[in-house]
Design goal:
The protein contains ten helices and six strands; from the N terminus they run βαααααβαβαβαβαβα. The protein is α/β, with parallel strands linked by helices. The chain has two domains: 4-15 and 82-209, HAD superfamily/HAD-like (Rossmann fold); 17-76. Strands 3-2-1-4-5-6 form a six-stranded parallel β-sheet, with helices on both faces. It is globular, with a radius of gyration of 16 Å.
Length: 213
């Protein structure tokens, strides 16, 4: 049974914080919301599910999707192919030799799929963006339901990722090079924490080598 590795995209695979933040704030301003005019306020949204965080920040539920649609349009025009973290493409391709690789993200499926392709990552079995299903928890549960009892991990870079991964039934892996700091990630008690793509690859070598049970 090959381990199933579910990767977040923004902050794990690509260094997207600056252009994601700009796109989000511009979309909020277009819809009349100005209460998140700082990087820290933006990052606080991701202490939970993005949609829940937006509502908690004062965006009415019926305005969340209009804001996200506007943000998505802006993201399409900004660094569409993503700025991959060093070694991430090689790491994902290496892990795919012994593990199943799936990307589960709040970004848009076509943007992420194109970025993976352009950057030489052809190993992802699926890319599940917010246009397919907004809830990461539901997507994680769906993947686990089809995993035939293989060990399943969600790899993310925010406290919210750790919360959603655990709620979805996966083991959680926090990467310390993304949007939330290692100190902040520790508050979510991830099952594992890694500080580099090399550590990520090393984490799964012994797991992938285990015989079926």
């Amino acid at each position: 049974m090959r381990p199933v590795l579910m990767f977040d995209y923004d902050g794990v695979i690509v260094d997207s914080l600056d252009y994601f933040l700009d796109s989000f704030l511009e979309a909020c301003h277009e819809h009349g919301f100005h209460q998140m005019d700082s990087r820290e306020a933006f990052l606080t949204i991701f202490d939970t599910n993005m949609y829940t965080g937006m509502v908690a920040a004062g965006i009415p539920e019926d305005q969340v999707y209009p804001v996200l649609i506007s943000m998505g349009k802006k993201l399409e025009g900004r660094n569409r192919n993503g700025l991959f973290f060093p070694l991430m493409a090689d790491t994902m391709n290496q892990l795919a030799q012994s593990c199943r690789v799936i990307v589960i993200t709040s970004n848009l499926t076509p943007i992420v799929a194109e970025s993976l392709h352009v950057n030489g990552v052809h190993c992802a079995e699926a890319v599940l963006g917010s246009d397919i299903e907004p809830s990461k928890v539901k997507k994680i549960r769906s993947v686990i339901g089809d995993a035939n009892e293989s060990p399943c991990y969600y790899i993310g870079d925010t406290v919210g990722d750790m919360v959603e991964g655990r709620e979805g039934g996966a083991k959680t892996v926090a990467v310390a090079w993304g949007w939330h700091s290692a100190e902040r990630l520790r508050t979510a008690a991830p099952d594992h924490m890694v500080h580099s793509p090399e550590e990520l690859a090393a984490l799964f070598r012994p797991i992938a080598a285990l015989p079926p049970t």
